[in-house]
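INFO  loader      accepted 1 record
INFO  loader      residues=357
INFO  predictor   begin
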Amino acid sequence: MILIFGAVSSFLLAFFWNKSVVVHEEKRSIYLYILHFTLSLLDGMSTLTFLPYVGEYFAKEYIIPNYIGESFSSLLPATLALIQGFQDEDCNIPYQNKTSTLTRTPYKAKYSVFVYFLLIFLLLLISIAAFSYLNFSNYAKRARKNRFSWVSAEFSLNDETVDDSSQRDKEMKQKRNIKEKEMEIRFLFILTVMVTFVYYGFLPGLMSYSTIPYSNKFFHLSITLSSILLPLSIILSIFSYEVSIQRICLESVAPFILSFYIYLVSVLSPCPPFVNNKYNLGGYLIVFCWIITSLMFMRIRCLIAAKLEKYGKNILLKLGCFTIIGQVFGGLTTYFMVEYLRLFIDRPKCAPIDFCY
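INFO  predictor   done
INFO  writer      dumping tokens
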């Protein structure tokens, strides 16, 4: 039902994205808001449903392919955006006083918004067909794991005859193992909130402030390339099912550092570092930061999910809940900083040549 709901929303967006309704004597894009909200619900609910589903019915080797499918859902829109291209500002700058005026030239789109949303609708139809096959076909059912096989393996040792001292040692060891596992689960939940808070909640609101000062080209490249290259990071994660907590923490350092640089560039907007470099060093550096943070944060999510799969679907469901919590609070933080604290400043269109000197 979640996928069907999203498919219907995408189909309706193709026809109503530019329709408006008069509210309080002003035109409002009510249809766009409502349909976009339903697609957001699809995104959030898929996090809560698909991962526990895979964890319950399939082996852990299917956890990362689930994320590969998630990354391919962003690959098609990013590829379409890359094909569509972008239009830079056409500024007329007289030589004498270095003032500039913005002149707009019509941009000939390679395809319409109508076609774009129909292609997204087609993508969701393919997703519905794939999930139906996965859920109902005999081939997929044969690939499912025995959900109760762990019970006999865990409790079969209790049938053995052991002396009291060995039994006490065994119980103490089991208590220590349970405590260590609980600490591991809590830590991975906290790390999940941190990752989703930063990348899926906080950073998206800073995209324009961190890239547009260098030019619209780098804004366009940051969005499209980070999404297009996303499946590559997850495919490489297939070879990293069994990783330690220490390795996950170590791999988390780099994207958090790069995220701080993106935040710093946004705060310094409209005159971030290397903004007037003749080789566009600052622009390519910020694109690199966005790509690496996207790839590494998604990889960390895969490693955390693969690590928690052995604890069952309820833990994976909680993982999805903490993922959404991080996204919500990250987005609210950015909104508060932009709308109320006014910490970020847009670069003026067609700014003078010496604007940042």
